[in-house]
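@channel sequence for tomorrow's demo:
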Amino acid sequence: MNMSQRSEALHVAGLWRYPVKSMAGEALREAAIGLDGIPGDRAVWVCGPEGVRTSRRQWKLLGLRASLDANGRSLVDGLPWDSREAAALVKAAAGEDAWIEESDPESRFDILPLLVATDGAVEAFGRDVRRLRPNILIGGVPGLEEVDWPGATLRIGAAIVRLDSLRGRCPMTTVDPDTLDRDPEVLRDIGRRFGGRLALNAEVLRPGRVRVGDAVTLVRAGVTSTGIASPHG
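structure tokens (generated this afternoon):
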């Protein structure tokens, strides 16, 4: 597929939710996106005496998989987040003085409720997209075009998402999502080749249901790129 074709085929290529902050998340086929992001995202977090603990330092948290049950309750490796068994897993990953609790709705996101990645930038990154922990992956994006997207909006069905700024990356990107092996070179590489920033902080201007394969329209000042549905959706 050449660049001109890709620019005309913007689509939702992936969706993720992270019910417990800093744990591995779950891939979704569809999600109802509200003003506070994807329901259940970062609903629970891990704490210690100093405050919230994340995989920037407690990197073994990424080895625990968070999900939601049919009632929208957060699970840790399939266990209720507030169970004794889940607490033991958290202590093993984040220290004996760690515990797990419901997050503060006002501060559960580091910056904005959504993180949007693009396939062109992920391809240039050359590593598993899960290292970037996006909520939405936009397919059909040429190269590093996302660097020109801050200030633009994405229209996905009824939903409108505003792209605010490029995300400064942290040591979480150095952890292999499958093996948990750490490679500091990953973050240095992001600094050298991408100015330390990959993917976009975003907020929801109008709620709506979003599905993998949905067409995406990018709206910038004076420029509109209309997508078509992905044949792989």
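heads up for whoever presents: The domain at 3-17+26-36+110-226 is CATH 2.40.33.20 (M1 Pyruvate Kinase; Domain 3).
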